[in-house]
Amino acid sequence: MTRLRNLLLTLLLAASSAPDFAAAQEVSQQRIVSGLGKLVEAAPLIDIAILRQEAIEGGGVAMASLPNWGKIAKLPQMVVEIDFENDSVMIKPESYRTLGLLADALHHPNLWAYKFLIVGHSSSTGSDKHNLELSERRAVAITEILSTTFAVAPERLYAIGVGEYFPIDGSKGDSASNRRVQLVNLGVFTTP
Amino acid sequence: MKTRNTIATALFIGLALAGATRAETLSYADAVTRLAQDCGGDIKKLCHGLNLGNGRVADCLQKNAAKISPVCVGSITTVLTSISQREQAQAAYANVCKHDVAQLCSSVKGDGYRLACLIKAEKRVGKPCNQAITDAGWR
Fold first, then answer.
1. Rounded to two decimals, what is the model's pTM?
2. A81: three-class secondary structure by DSSP
């Protein structure tokens, strides 16, 4: 039942309104850097627990219509895709390059001051609870890879899974575009 | 004859060393692409279920060194060396380029804009700083 095959990685980072889902496959370091470097105002304060609760309770509606997710939706953003093994947190070697591109972008002076939220999504195949957990574990796996293999400071990275609660309008719940992970620019990182 | 050979050898070694130190650093993306290409099959076969994070894939490949393909073995070394060279260049950038920033881009605020300023002023920027920017993969 849990045939969650692929997961996509979405980068939500600049002040553009709609995520760039169409051109998700081919991204370059330059595109990520310029897309993510366009934060024009101070980013809102984000509470991961509140976001998680809001996703579960507000499930199925557009992200932008929820109070806290609405703030996230306004932040700079772009989309990339990451392929995982079936029902697993293992990322296929075919998607290593995409992880590397993210890492290169996060190491660029234009972006190195910012912190990021990585949001895992899933298809609607399988139970809500399982999808929520798997999407969160996948988001955590990505932050772990970025912060260890690719030496991005772990303090700059936050992970959250929202399962199948935010399907893309007009597409089926099990389509590839609904198995995503997003990366959101949360604004300037300051040491506590 | 003997002398010429020695000179030739010395030259060759010199060139080889210069080549080794001036080799272009790889981006993370290019480095792991190479890893995926050369080791992808071995990873899927021998390290199934493991991720790159916390050195799990690297440890697994090392543990299975006897079983993995020679191409993959060579690739791991190249990838690790190149990544560490790039990390060093990025870490050294601020210090290496300090004087160039002070002289050419002191009025520019923000790391990203300062870098853009240095890149634009490439011809007047000192060689070490230019090299650091190139090795850091920011050009």
1. 0.79
2. strand
